[in-house]
Amino acid sequence: RWIDLDKPVSIKNCKSLPETGAHFKFAIQFFPECMKVQLVQDCVKVMFFKQELLRLVSDVEVKITSENRIINAVAYVCLVAHENPKENHFNILDKKFHLIFPAHVLDSYDISKNEWIEYIKQPLEIAMTQHYTDPLCAALSFIEQSPMYGVNYFEIKNKKKVNFLLGVDCFGLSIYRPTNRVEPINAFSWSELNKVSYVDTKFFITFLKEKSKEFVFEAKSSRVCDEMIKIIMGNHKRFMRRAEES
Q1: Which of 23, 59, 82, 207, CA to CA, is 20 to 30 A from 96?
Q2: pLDDT tens-digit profile of 37-72?
Q3: How many Å apart are CA 148 and CA 182, to the nearest integer?
Q4: Does 28 reside within a domain?
Q5: 217 SS3 class
Q6: Residue 132 DSSP symbol
Q7: Among 242, 235, 241, residue whose Cα is nearest residue 190
């Protein structure tokens, strides 16, 4: 669960282990439309890169070209080398290869590990002469173009009890089939929405167009509804802020 930063953190609301106490994971909750413009600090760029890159490259549904996989690999190696100055770039590539080239990726290409490393060698040598954020920004541009970039998925059911996924991101809401988290079957921009609310496990979305029907679906629990509305309201708030600034 996401911590409500407007309220004091209570140990009662956190999962804990008797030996070590509460466990917290620092993660990104809201994503910008344009990372190149909106991410200013290098440490923030690193956080976005690590979280989204490893999520996308390990997902079997995400299709990534071989060129982009090389760009991502170069950026990741340069970042790890920056964090571990005594480590050799090519040793890092060998050690971390399984993270950026999972088994399903190797199976989908007729290219061996050694061949991938040979393809990566030249662009990596060029990147080694640059600041580590240069290849990082190139990789962030790819991540931003991914259809799964920054999407939070929630399991829902319609009135006929058919399973779907609700996707929430910086652009609006999308409806997906459970077997395809890449291509939405319907999408609504933030500018189309009027109000969101929930009662118990039922979630309601109304639109600004007068003749538009209210969108009603059911979530697994009221806690999931609460999480959904926080993500939706947080993204909508940032959308309104961007609209005011433009």
Answers
A1: 23
A2: 888 899 999 999 988 888 888 888 888 889 999 999
A3: 6
A4: no
A5: strand
A6: T
A7: 235
Output the six-digit token pair for 106: 């190797």
pTM, two decimal places: 0.83
Cα(190)–Cα(109) distance, integer angstroms: 39
> Cα 190 to chain center, whole Å?
19
Q: Which domain holds residue 49?
A: 35-145
Looking at the domain assignment, is residue 7 inside a domain? no
* pLDDT for residue 197: 93
Residue 77 to residue 133: CA distance in whole angstroms: 12
Please report whether residue 115 resides in a domain. Answer: yes
- The number of folded domains in the chain is 2
Q: Is 54 exposed, middle or buried (0-12, 13-18, 19+ CB in 10 A)?
A: middle
Query: Which residue, among 78, 71, 195, 86, has the nearest Cα to 139 in the 3D structure?
Result: 71
